[in-house]
Design brief:
The complex is a heterodimer.
Chain A (H helix, E strand, L loop, with lengths): L16 E6 L3 E4 L7 E2 L5 E2 L3 E5 L5 E5 L4 E4 L4 E10 L2 E16 L6 E5 L3 E5 L3 E6 L5 E7 L2 E5 L5 E4 L3 E5 L6 E5 L2 H16 L3 E9 L5 E9 L8
Parallel strand pairs in A: 9-10
Antiparallel strand pairs in A: 1-4, 1-6, 2-3, 2-5, 5-8, 6-7, 7-9, 8-9, 9-12, 10-11, 11-14, 12-13, 13-16, 14-15, 16-17, 18-19
Chain B lengths: L1 H4 L5 H12 L8 E2 L5 E3 L4 E7 L7 E10 L6 E7 L3 E6 L8 E10 L4 E4 L9 E6 L17 E6 L5 E2 L6 E6 L10 E5 L2 E2 L5 E3 L2 E4 L8 E10 L5 E11 L19 E17 L2 E16 L2 E10 L11 E8 L3 E8 L13 E10 L4 E11 L10 E9 L5 E9 L11 E10 L5 E12 L23 H9 L4 E3 L8 E13 L4 E13 L9 H7 L5 H10 L14 E4 L2 E4 L6 E11 L2 E10 L15 E12 L4 E11 L11 E11 L8 E12 L11 H4 L6 E4 L2 E4 L5 E17 L2 E16 L7 E14 L4 E14 L4 E16 L4 E16 L2 E5 L14 E5 L5 E19 L2 E14 L4 E16 L1
Parallel strand pairs in B: 2-9, 11-18, 27-30
Antiparallel strand pairs in B: 1-3, 3-6, 4-5, 4-7, 5-6, 7-8, 7-9, 10-12, 12-16, 13-14, 13-17, 15-16, 17-18, 19-20, 19-53, 20-21, 21-22, 22-23, 23-24, 24-25, 25-28, 26-27, 28-29, 29-31, 31-32, 32-35, 33-34, 35-36, 36-37, 37-38, 38-39, 39-40, 40-43, 41-42, 43-44, 44-45, 45-46, 46-47, 47-48, 48-51, ...
């Protein structure tokens, strides 16, 4: 057990990613386990591990090629793949539910993002994925070039900056629409703000008893910034 | 890689090996290139060709030509000419291709263009397997040296962080968990923090138990080897800011590329002096490249100024500007290399403008090109020379003579018309399941750009200065006596149209692609369109409607009697408009990708008259099919390809004989992930060529028939010549292995290449030839010292003319490079030696004396036989010495100094450089 108290007793396998940041409502389930455990900073994720976020949960997952996935609340994803050389990761991220923003850093790496209805083949690009409870999915391009394939029909559309591909739950139809720069900026800002909120803050409380003995304890907490309209 | 720094050419040896693989004895350029065992689809690969100092003739321009196996034409990509290397970075992106074929062309100062390997040679161009993208195999953990591949995940080296935002993470890459976690020590500013770290064989993480104080920190990871030595694996710095400092840096969440008017660039200056046979030539080149970015807008400017610029040549000074906006717009100006449909244009250099617009997320594409392929070069003429030619003797024995007034060009005085081109492509579908496009191209020489002498009326009076008044009078009275021997090419025109489509289905497992094209070329547009008067002179009538049509089409192409295929059919002395079949071209390909198989079926048909002025490398007059299947075995480590191809020429039946080429091949590649196993490539190709004609000659005895000069047939009492027979079979075997291994604390990579090509000619006694070659190279990287070495040996033997000529070449090469990173100096030197031995018996033709002499042409009864003179024997020794020195003044300024000395007298390459030396200085400034 590490000094931060987190239980990271995992089988010594080559990890695929680590949890770089999180808020408390993030859990991880390893392939061989049935139980969910609370995520911790530097928590390794291996092939076929699952990560989920709660109502307020948010996680930043860093892959071994420094690609980063930002996972929004109420999401569930399974990571597959391996990292066999620096800057060279092959991963398939199955987004079963919720929303994720993926920023792939290395063009030598190969990422696939799979949803129940579509699959996106990714190299060196940034885009977000959203999966509805019904299985319909939506992909929004922020940079680079991604090919989105509807699983049932095999229809393929290219996703570039400022476009959104929406795939129906049956995986048959893909609709490609435009996304304005304002919408993209807003989405950026939202991810950025949630990212900033993941900093763990410390609060030190000093207790002094009647005899003058002093003891300090540390409380860690996450600061959530109120929305502007609140 | 040692190849990067050992730039001095030991090209002779390797060019021999690879030229033998190419099967060509005509391989003039001294070029060394080791084809990679495989390339990954979509992954950029750097093709490097090392030059053999290129005699006294430096390379002005170089192009890499590549195509996917089965494609009828090559894509052209400019290559970068460096010190003594030519480098081209190329990505083979075709989703269904299984093999790429390529060759290099170099254009020299004297205008010569050399191709290597010869794509039309018996073995064709170089070839490389395209395999699916694979992940690099992790290196083994060398527990003695502590060498291990790793990646720092956090904090980023040099990062400035908030006190509460620090954690360390390092990951390692190796095949098995050889390392024991207790062998790692993690230190923060030399303080051992290992007990607080989470250490497993692949990942080390550490979270500070309490916030770090502001200041600078160094994290290190050491490994204790089994023999007790501590070895530093990783070490990096970061800083902690005070809590009141500005926001700390972390991995930028959405790091945008650097922005600014100028975000990067390079300036290079090169000066070279070389001397050969007491002839010295100097040159200087200056390159600049600048790039910048603002939001979605990106630009690049580049320029080249060289002392090789010459008004008698096409432009050597070059400039280009490129502007990109997101993924939807590319604008280029200057010297550019645009492509349209590959049948029409595939990377040809143009001086002009090019725009590529993609709308609706790439589904709509529009391309426009306008520019100049050639600039005009004025012709230079010598003064007219008068000669008197004796025609015969009259009845009294007096000579009957004729005056001739000869016009010749000065040396390198040939003229060139300015050649303009315009092209466009409009497409729909992009990368989607269905796509379609139409391309059009128009090229025409500007007839008024230069003044060629085509008749007496065009003569400048100054050209008559060499004639006396009487001679001038004779010429003026008889202008037909002007004999123009300038060789100036006439002005030409070309129009082409092409369409292509693709259809992808079943998640891209089924791919259908097709190209259809037509192209008309006029080899001399100067007379203008064909009119009724000229048609009369040619012996047929042209109606008014046809002439009117020609007139209306003249803005597109001038149609006249100089067309490569006249769109007219003459019947009863009347001309009818037709579509000449020979100007058409088509190819269709179906790829099926199922169950680890890549199967391809292709049909192509290219007429003998299909040609464009922007794509001259197309094989014409060919039609047929090819079938291949490449399948993967053993977790994609073995690639087995079976192929069958059957092609015929004479596709429109315009010749007497049709040659059928049938090729079968088996290619096997073993590319294991484990580094302790070798990469192996083996190929067996069998090709037959047969035109269905036998060699016959009833005038010769049976033992001499297969040596007959002419193929003669007797019909009744008459003898006539039949088409030359063709019936041969070529077998080609090649094997290459490369294997990295460690020995004596040194990392080695050994590669072995073996090749054999033999051709058996069944219809010509002296048509057999064979080549054998073998080569071995050992590259070594020393541990603990920055030294790398390379040694190699090559041997080659060829027999041509059924053994009458033999050539043996044996070569040795060695190289050494030494890097001093702290002093920012690297040094490399190379030495090469070759020993040639050749023996040549000439083939002469003789008359068969017993053949009837008076009734048949003498050539009918001639046969080839070895010369009775003793064979010519020759032995030569050549050597090459070269060195490079690179000194990095600071991270932005670098100086390269290169020198070499060559003594070469080589029959194989037919080059003679008795005393050739070169010195080059290059300065590079990066910003």
């Amino acid at each position: 057990m590490a000094e931060d108290g987190a239980d990271r007793s995992v089988t010594p396998r080559r990890p695929l990613a680590i949890v770089r940041r999180f808020n408390p409502l993030v859990q991880v389930r390893h392939l061989a386990d049935e139980d969910w455990i609370g995520a911790a900073r530097t928590h390794p994720l291996h092939d076929a591990d699952t990560l989920r976020t709660g109502d307020e949960g948010f996680a930043v997952v860093q892959f071994m090629d420094n690609s980063v996935a930002r996972v929004r609340p109420n999401s569930l994803l399974i990571v597959h793949g391996e990292s066999r050389a620096p800057g060279n990761t092959a991963a398939r991220i199955a987004v079963e539910l919720g929303e994720m923003f993926l920023s792939v850093q290395s063009s030598a790496s190969a990422y696939e993002v799979a949803t129940p209805s579509a699959v996106a083949a990714v190299r060196g690009t940034r885009f977000s994925t959203w999966v509805s409870p019904t299985g319909a999915s939506s992909f929004t391009g922020f940079s680079g070039h991604v090919l989105i394939t509807a699983l049932a029909s095999g229809n393929v559309v290219p996703l570039v900056r400022g476009t959104r591909a929406e795939v129906d739950a049956a995986g048959e139809e893909i609709e490609l629409t435009r996304v304005t720069e304002d919408e993209l900026d807003t989405a950026y800002d939202e991810y950025q703000r949630m990212d900033d909120e993941l900093d763990i803050k410390s609060l030190w409380l000093r207790f002094i008893d009647a005899e003058g003995r002093t003891e300090e304890i540390e409380l860690e907490y996450f600061q959530v910034q109120p929305d502007e309209e609140e | 890689m040692i190849r990067r720094t050992l730039g001095t050419p030991l090209a002779l040896l390797s060019s021999i090996t690879l030229s033998v693989l190419a099967g060509s004895l005509e391989a003039l350029p001294l070029i060394q290139h080791r084809p990679p065992p495989y390339v990954e689809r979509g992954k950029p690969v750097r093709m490097e060709f090392r030059l053999g100092d290129l005699a006294s003739d430096p390379v002005r321009e170089a192009y890499l030509h590549y195509r996917y196996r089965g494609e009828p034409t090559y894509h052209h990509q400019p290559a970068e000419v460096l010190d003594r290397r030519i480098v081209a970075e190329v990505s083979f992106t075709d989703a269904s291709a299984t093999m790429a074929e390529y060759y290099l062309t170099t254009e020299h100062h004297d205008g010569r263009v050399r191709a290597w390997p010869d794509p039309a040679g018996p073995a064709g161009p170089a070839a490389v397997d395209i395999i699916e993208p694979r992940r690099d195999a992790p290196q083994a953990f060398d527990t003695r040296s502590g060498r291990i591949e790793h990646a720092i995940l956090s904090p980023e080296p040099g990062a400035r962080l908030r006190p509460d935002d620090v954690f360390a993470a390092v990951t390692f890459f190796y095949e098995h968990a050889e390392a024991i976690p207790d062998s790692f020590q993690v230190r923060l500013n030399d303080r051992n923090i290992s007990t607080a770290a989470e250490i497993n064989p692949w990942l080390i993480t550490w979270i500070p138990p309490e916030p770090l104080m502001p200041g600078d920190y160094t994290l290190t990871v050491d490994y204790s080897s089994p023999d007790g030595h501590s070895i530093r694996i990783a070490g990096w710095d970061f800083s902690i800011l005070s809590t009141i400092s500005p926001p700390a840096e972390d991995i930028p969440p959405y790091a945008e590329p650097r922005e600014g008017l100028i975000t990067g660039g390079q300036i290079q200056g090169t000066a070279r002096s070389q001397s050969s046979s007491n002839r010295t030539s100097n040159l200087a080149r200056n390159n600049i490249r600048v790039s910048g970015r603002h939001g979605e807008l990106r630009y690049t400017l580049s320029g080249l100024i060289t002392t090789q610029e010459d008004v008698r040549l096409q432009r050597q000074n070059q400039y280009a500007a490129e502007l990109k906006a997101g993924d939807w717009l590319v604008l280029e100006a200057g010297h550019i290399h645009p492509s349209l449909n590959p049948f029409l244009m595939a990377g040809r250099r143009v001086r002009g403008l090019h725009s590529d617009i993609r709308l609706r997320s790439g589904a709509m594409q529009m391309q426009f090109i306008y520019g100049q392929l050639h600039r005009r070069i004025k012709p230079l003429y010598r003064e007219l020379v008068h000669e008197t030619r004796t025609l015969s003797l009259d009845s009294e024995g007096n000579e009957i003579t004729e005056n001739q007034f000869i016009l010749q060009s000065e040396r390198q005085g040939a003229g060139t018309y300015a050649r303009n081109m315009a092209g466009a492509r409009i497409g729909y579908g992009g990368d989607g399941p269905f796509g379609f496009s139409v391309s059009v191209l128009r090229v025409e020489d500007r007839t008024g750009s230069i003044d060629l002498v085509r008749s007496f009326d065009d003569l400048d009076p100054g050209l008559l200065d060499g004639l006396d008044p009487a001679q001038r009078q004779v010429l003026s009275a008889n202008p037909e006596l002007l004999d123009i021997r300038t060789g100036d090419p006439p002005p030409r025109g070309n129009v082409g149209i092409a369409t292509d489509f693709h259809l992808h289905a079943d998640n891209n497992r089924i791919q259908i692609h097709g190209d259809f094209a037509a192209s008309l070329i006029n080899d001399d547009i100067s007379p203008g369109i064909l009119d009724q008067k000229r048609a009369d002179n040619l012996g047929f009538a042209l109606d008014d409607a046809t002439v009117s049509l020609f007139d209306r089409l003249s803005w597109l192409i001038v149609i006249n009697e100089n067309m490569n295929a006249l769109p007219l059919k003459v019947h009863d002395q009347k001309a009818e408009l037709i579509m000449p079949k020979g100007v058409l071209a088509a190819q269709t390909r179906i790829n099926l990708n199922y169950f680890d198989h890549n199967a391809a079926i292709q049909y192509q048909w290219i007429g003998p008259d299909f040609s464009t002025l922007t794509n001259t490398g197309l094989r014409r007059d060919v039609g047929g099919y090819s079938i291949s299947d490449r399948f993967r075995l053993w977790s994609n480590t073995v690639y087995l390809t079976l192929g069958h191809e059957r092609l015929k020429d004479n596709v429109i039946g315009h010749r007497d004989a049709t040659t059928t080429t049938t090729a079968n091949r088996i290619d096997v590649g073993w590319y294991p992930m484990a580094p302790e196993l070798p990469n192996v490539t083996a190929r067996i190709h069998r090709r037959t060529r047969d035109n269905g004609h036998e060699r016959t000659n009833p005038l010769l005895p049976s033992e001499l028939v297969l040596a007959s000069v002419r193929n003669v047939q007797q019909v009744g009492d008459e003898f006539d010549v039949r088409p030359s027979p063709r019936d041969n079979v070529t077998m080609q075997y090649s094997l290459s292995l490369s294997q990295p291994f460690a020995l004596l604390d040194i990392d080695h990579e050994a590669s072995v290449n073996l090749a054999r090509i033999s051709t058996k000619d069944r219809v010509f006694l002296y048509g057999d030839h064979k080549t054998h070659s073998a080569g071995m190279t050992l590259s070594s990287t020393f541990t603990g010292t920055p030294v790398r070495t390379e040694v190699g040996f090559n041997t080659h033997r060829s027999e041509s003319s059924s053994g009458l000529s033999t050539l043996s070449v044996h070569g040795l090469q060695g190289g050494l490079s030494w890097d001093f990173p702290e002093q920012r100096i690297s040094f490399a030197a190379e030495l090469g030696l070759t020993f040639d031995r050749s023996e040549t018996t000439r083939l002469v033709d003789r008359l068969y004396e017993e053949a009837p002499g008076n009734t048949i042409p003498e050539q009918f009864a001639r046969y080839y036989t070895p010369d009775t003179d003793p064979p010519e024997k020759e032995r030569t020794i050549s050597y090459l010495l070269g060195s490079d020195l690179r000194y990095q003044l600071d991270p932005r300024h670098t100086v390269h100094v290169s020198g070499s000395y060559i003594r070469l007298a080589d029959r194989y390459t037919r080059l003679s450089l008795p005393n050739h030396h070169l010195f080059q200085l290059r300065y590079v400034y990066d910003f």
